[in-house]
Design goal:
The protein has 238 residues and is α/β, with parallel strands linked by helices. The chain is built from 10 helices and 8 strands. It folds into 2 domains: 200 residues, no CATH class; 33 residues, no CATH class. The longest helix has 15 residues. The protein is globular, with a radius of gyration of 20 Å.
């Protein structure tokens, strides 16, 4: 839902144009996240008072590994939306954007367990070029958070294809007693997010689809057809 405050006149054409000044509420799901990322980057040019309600149910990819290891909500879409809404004119934010968007190799050179763990250690120590470009105090906070993740990381955790931003948010979540709200608040202030990003729930929950065939399918990645074949039966309840 979008709502605007007033109209203002274009002096050259005499035509009224719509201005989003007071509030703009979005209720957005997890599908077409790339499109919504682009929309959010455009939206912040018109208003800083948007509220983004994110469903943290992603159960595929690197999010699945974090959820399985720590019994937590999915943070990938929260990360993506905060970065999209961050003020890009603030010093250091382009470096934060690059760091949060970076993924560790999933195959080929540098994707073996030893290399991935060595890369993680470099990021934690502030020696990796990606973290070295982030100014203080944000760089120090990021190092602290990802250090919490490293300390809690299971010995057999699979780092292939891991999103660095997701690891940072997971570390903050663990550092704050398995609460995501303080992490979202802190990063929103530090990177000057032009809007409010909230999770619709903060528990470890999964989507369940009831099919016309009577089958129940658990997990968003099994429902959307992105990672697995499309469902053969119609969804009757979600």
């Amino acid at each position: 839902m979008l709502a605007g405050s007033r109209n203002w006149n274009n002096k050259r054409t005499g035509k009224a144009r719509f201005s989003l000044n007071y509030y703009c509420y979005w209720v957005l799901g997890d599908r077409n996240t790339s499109f919504l990322h682009l929309v959010s980057r455009r939206l912040k040019r018109f208003t800083h008072n948007s509220t983004h309600l994110i469903t943290p149910f992603d159960s595929g990819g690197s999010s699945a590994k974090l959820r399985e290891a720590f019994g937590m909500l999915s943070v990938g879409d929260l990360r993506n939306r905060m970065i999209a809404l961050a003020d890009e004119s603030v010093q250091g934010n382009p470096a934060v954007y690059e760091l949060f968007s970076h993924r560790l190799p999933s195959a080929g050179e540098g994707a073996d367990p030893a290399s991935l763990r060595a890369r993680l250690e470099e990021i934690c120590a502030g020696e990796d070029p990606l973290i070295a470009r982030v100014p203080v105090p944000l760089g120090e906070i990021i190092q602290n958070y990802i250090g919490f993740f490293r300390a809690a990381m299971p010995a057999d955790f699979d780092l292939r294809g891991a999103s660095i931003g997701n690891l940072i948010l997971a570390g903050g979540y663990l550092n704050h007693g398995q609460r995501i709200e303080p992490v979202l608040f802190l990063f929103s202030k530090l990177v000057e997010v032009r809007g409010n990003v909230r999770a619709v729930v903060t528990d470890d929950l999964h989507l369940v689809a009831e099919l016309q065939s009577g089958e129940a399918v658990i997990g968003q990645h099994r429902i959307t057809g992105k990672e697995l074949p499309p469902l053969r039966s119609r969804i009757v309840d979600l």
